[in-house]
Amino acid sequence: MSETPSPLNAALSLAASGVPVLPLRRGKVPFGNCRTCAGNACGGRPNMKTPGPCACPYPCHAWAAATTDPSVLASPAWATAWRTAAAVAYHPGGAGVTVVDLDDVAAIAWAHAALPATRTVATTRGEHWIYQGVMQSVNAVRPGVDIKSLMSYARWLGPGTGVTAALPAIVRALAVKAPSPARRAPQALTVPFTGQIGACPHRTPTYLDRGIAMAVQRITAADSAVHATVYRAFLAVLSTHGRCGCLTDAHVTRLFTAAQAKGESVRHCTDAWTNARTALGL
Predict the structure, then answer these.
(1) Are 65 and 53 within 8 A, CB to CB?
(2) What is the CA radius of gyration of the chain?
(3) Beta carbons of 56 and 76 less than 8 angstroms apart
(4) Distance CA 110, CA 171 (A)
(5) Separation CA 234–CA 228 (nearest Å)
(6) Calpha distance 119→129 (Å, rounded)
(7) What Cα–Cα distance (Å) separates residue 107 from each residue in 1, 118, 124, 128?
């Protein structure tokens, strides 16, 4: 009877086949950033568009930490993470695939009726349907359905069964949603609201930086209800600093980068920011 491979051995095997991998801790979430990268204070990996090791030696920046480099995976800096890892994850977009994550029986029934057959992998509550091709990652495209591809991660639960089909147009169409009725901030990020210019009149700059770091940490730690977590984090920042003019492009970019690392698109970040402003009357 063969033994189940350790998370590191499983990761090395996947990496050898060209699949970028990373460790997950309990709760199916990536390990937190090191002190240098806490709150993305290091600026994150360049552009945060492709997987690979950070400038620091640790598995920082969630999905972006995924790598195929065995020297990184087996390095002393990653050893503690692998010793305590609960699972192995991979970056679908980096592997050239898209995962349609079906969370329950109803979602699986919908997939059988609406989507072309492809390779499937059983999950704890549902199934992963894997297609060849990449696209943006979007959560909650339908009840119980998430799309994981670029700038996202999925648990490795085995090779699955069936033949991997080409990514169909119907899956790409799921990522296209009707525009939000709320007034939308511009896609090219600038200071997203008007207000007084200058230092925050009621708190110190250190208080602002701590608030941004806490919001980023809250978003990064979310393992479910990512949309709601992002909105609440934006709302918390804006409720304290939305009227005094102390927020800058750099602060907002840190928040958007953290949200996008969890699979949110720029459009969803912009909608959440706009809706938070609207709720506060800004």
Answers:
(1) yes
(2) 20
(3) no
(4) 12
(5) 10
(6) 6
(7) 35, 15, 14, 11
Q: What is the pLDDT along the chain (282 residues), one digit of tens a residue?
A: 455 679 999 999 999 999 999 999 988 899 988 988 887 778 776 555 667 888 889 999 889 999 999 999 999 999 999 999 999 999 999 999 999 999 999 999 999 999 999 999 999 999 999 999 999 899 888 899 999 999 899 999 999 999 999 999 999 888 875 444 444 444 444 434 444 444 455 556 677 777 888 888 888 888 777 888 888 888 888 877 777 767 777 788 888 888 888 888 877 788 788 877 777 776
Lookup result for tokens 């640790």: 58
Which residue in this structure is represented by tokens 């990449």? 134
CB burial of 135-160 (b: ≥16 within 10 Å; e: otherwise) equals bbbbbbbeebbbbbbbbbbbbbeeee
Question: CA neighbours within 13 Å on the CB side: how many for 114?
Answer: 16
Counts of helices then strands in the chain (DSSP H, E): 9, 10
pTM of this structure: 0.64
Q: 183 exposed, middle or buried (CB, 10 Å; 0-12, 13-18, 19+)?
A: exposed
